[in-house]
Amino acid sequence: MRILLFSVTEIGASVLAFLLGEKHQVCGLVFNCSNNFDIQEMKELAKPYKIPFWESNDLSDPKLIAAVKNTIKPDLILIASFDQLAPKSLYSLAGLAAINIHPSYLPDYRGFHPYFWPLANGEKQSGVSFHYLSEKFDQGDVIAQKKVVIEPGDTAGIIIDKQKKVALKILKNMLAEIERTGQKPKAVPQPAGNFVKAPKIKQRDFFIDWQWPTAKIINRIRALNPHSPAFTFFRGELVGIYQARPAQTSTKAAAGAIIALEASGPVVKTGDGAVVLVVVLAGKRYLLSGNDFIANEKVKVAEKFGWEERIS
Question: Cys-Cys with 271: which of 32, 124, 135, 211 at CB 3.0–4.6 Å?
Fold first, then answer.
């Protein structure tokens, strides 16, 4: 079975490694033109197998569609997290089926950033869903799905690792069933209604508003880690926070004010309590423990982390 894989994320790299390890015939790869680390990893994996690849920021590009139709001729189109909607003129070229691996438990968290929003929203679970491609983002009939538990300390990176393991198990079973029967997998329609969405992350989503409740601030930091810190301003300079925990004590102060200095880091007032900053990205992009940040920057109680109105 000839498989054409589309991906721009680390889940795609795991899927490609699995397909090659299981001796499946990967007949082509499609990336966007960003050339990020995960795409580079997929290119390195593909190199010994001389798998052709295409880079495109437009999946409706006639040249790409012609290549799929006349040269690649896939039996299965498999998308493992891609940042564009595949048009019907493309996915209909699959001889057997066109399937997307979506990192959420559909129908919740359809959209561009399903890694980020469940954690940012304080959800207790996410998931993985395999569904047929359709003319609307992430709304095709569901072939298989499984929930993934979000533990209190989990970051986006940890959840992605959990999702990769689940996705590969589902993929292995699905491909075995296709090869056994020669048929498309059975699927069920997604329910109609309004569900939680996973829109593109905007610039302001990377920033902490210290008036937020403690839980929301910590969830925002977890949702961005490890791909980015959550940003704030200190003494007019941009500072990133990679890890924080709820403080055991609080006091009356303005949101963002440093109310104490603990061994593990500065204690910062929030909208309903306080957080301890445990890992900080400061200065010329170097990581510090919260305690080292206090020492290096000579941090003082009553100094303030700020939310800048210019962030939109």
Answer: 211
Own/partner contacts of 250-256, CB < 8 Å, gap of 24 or more, are 250/274, 254/304, 255/210, 255/211, 256/210, 256/232, 256/304, 256/305, 256/306, 256/307
| Residue 35 confidence (pLDDT) | 62
Domain 2-198, CATH: 3.40.50.170
**Overall average pLDDT of the 197-202 stretch:** 96
Domain boundaries in the chain? 2-198, 203-306
HEC-encoded secondary structure of the chain = CEEEEEECCHHHHHHHHHHHHCCCEEEEEEECCCCCHHHHHHHHHHHHHCCCEEECCCCCCHHHHHHHHHHHCCCEEEEECCCCCCCHHHHCCCCCEEEEEECCCCCCCEECCCCHHHHHCCCCEEEEEEEECCCCCCCCCEEEEEEEECCCCCCHHHHHHHHHHHHHHHHHHHHHHHHHHCCCCCCECCCCCCCCEECCCCHHHHECCCCCCHHHHHHHHHHHCCCCCEEEEECCEEEEEEEEEECCCCCCCCCCEEEEEECCEEEEECCCCEEEEEEEEECCCEEEEHHHHHHHHCCCCCCEEECCCCCC
pTM for the whole thing?
Answer: 0.93
pLDDT greater than 60 at residue 93: yes
Which residue matches tokens 């800048």? 308
Question: What top-level class would CATH report for the domain 203-306?
Answer: alpha beta
User: What is the rounded average pLDDT of the residues 50-61?
Assistant: 91
What crossing angle do the helices spanning 156-181 and 214-224 adopt, rounded to 10°? 50
User: Cα–Cα distance between 250 and 274 in angstroms, integer?
Assistant: 6
The phi and psi torsions of 87 (rounded to 5 degrees) equal: -70, 160
